[in-house]
Amino acid sequence: MAGVRLDKPWRALTAANVAGLAGELGVYQLADGEGTVIRIGYAGGRSLFGLRSELQAALAAGGGASQFRTEVTAGYMSRYDELLMVHVADFGSLPEGNADDARRRLGRLTPG
Amino acid sequence: MDFEMTAEQALIVDQVRRFVREEVVPLEAKLDPDASRLEPEDQARLVSITRAMGLYGLGIPPEFGGPDVDIVTQTLIAIETSQHRAGLYSPCFGAFGGAGLAQLYEANDDQKERYLFPMLRGEKHGFFGLTEPSGGSDPARAIRTQAVRDGDDWVINGAKIFISGADGADFGIVFARTDASKGRGGVTCFIVDADTPGFYVRRVVHTLRSGHYGTELQFEDARVPHANVLGEVNRGFAIANDRLTRQRIPYAAGCIGVAIAAQRMSIDYAKQRETFGAMLSTRQAIQWMVVDNEIDIQTARWATLAAACKAARGEPFRTEAAMAKLLASEGASRVVDRAIQIHGGYGVTKDFPFERWYREMRIRRIGEGPSEVQRIVMARDLFDQALY
Ligand SMILES: Cc1cc2nc3c(=O)[nH]c(=O)nc-3n(C[C@H](O)[C@H](O)[C@H](O)COP(=O)(O)OP(=O)(O)OC[C@H]3O[C@@H](n4cnc5c(N)ncnc54)[C@H](O)[C@@H]3O)c2cc1C
Predict the structure, then answer these.
(1) Is the model more confident about B385 or about A25?
(2) Is this structure's pTM higher than 0.90?
(3) Domain spanning A11-94: which CATH class is it, in words?
(4) With an 8 Å Cβ cutoff, are A45 and B34 in contact?
């Protein structure tokens, strides 16, 4: 059973690092230089080149992120929701880049 | 027995079919292939259409404000509403509303005010908490979650697993053992508010169904008032069983709808895909797959409508519902598998809905009672006794 938190080491959000990612489906987190998560996202079935193209888009958009980490998973939808809920459980609110998710009925988790 | 639709049923089915094809399927083109929900404004628009059709709240008894649609017609509708990518677990993205937790119709007046009516108005959501880590096929024996009476309260300790929707729910129906000496007669059903101290949704249980996950629950000295006992103490299992039997008919119908959609797409594809100088549709190997699909679909459809007809007549329908659930979930699994084979490589891509149906259909042979349990239910009735 994978841990509920995505606690892999952060990598610098650079063109070279992102270009090295496989085109797989999965979830990712973007953080500022302090490691504060500013957005959680997923590369779903309609993404062009999976995590690589999603993170390339994030890099191009700017937005203050300087680090990223990813997790390859075919169950990206449920993992995405889980990461959002765990973030709320840990920090009390959604990451600033996930304001749109507040429009829907997100569940509550109390991870042990 | 005559399974020809009445003129009124044919009209309703046609209306629902057009709704699915013209309103629901186009919305999916812009969603992730695994998505199970719409943008709130799209969802609201669909609901306004089903309300205008007079079909919102299907499954809600008319005395509680649902439309006066009999169970056979509801089954025919359920065969239509699943005919899109997300349709197996999110038929029309919930645009027809739903009966919610049917056990609450058994609630007393106070509980109806606090839970049933808000649920029917869409203000509260509930979960169904029966299965435990110790097993789901035989919950009467497997339930280890305990509730102990303490004054006006019950104190619940234990765990549940695979519970759908608990993380977003306002309350849940939770089955707990209240008399260790009594097996099936020692289980009570409680309504537990999600903000009860000591109630925790501990984790998401990831499955093949990515858009809709299960959860694991923990109860640590969760205190529930006696006023929240649903039905009678030690008689909770009858409530669980009743829901499971009724639920099998729409559950089967959803599988049949997906199988029909997969079959329709397979026939269309076979008529236009050419290999070795001829259309796939001219190859006997492909024709037989399509024929076998049709046999699976029709067998399941007849069995499901037979169960619905018996239920409509007020006759016992437990065996028929179990047979329908078994035939539909297993038959539709084969249909989706053959549809993938007919589509070749495209069949397993996310460009088509088959791979999602394939994953989700696999769960249908386990959820709401696995195939083996359906056979146990039928065997019990056939031998006219409890075998276990
Ligand atoms: C996605 C998903 C969502 C779910 N949602 C809910 C929910 O909302 N609420 C809820 O309460 N439960 C829910 N469930 C649980 C589901 O109802 C159980 O998984 C199911 O009842 C089987 O229980 P089990 O998994 O513990 O298998 P077990 O009971 O451990 O059985 C294991 C296998 O053995 C077979 N078996 C058992 N007894 C016999 C026998 N006598 N002879 C031959 N074979 C036998 C079973 O059929 C099964 O294949 C969900 C499950 C899934 C996968």
Answers:
(1) A25
(2) yes
(3) alpha beta
(4) yes
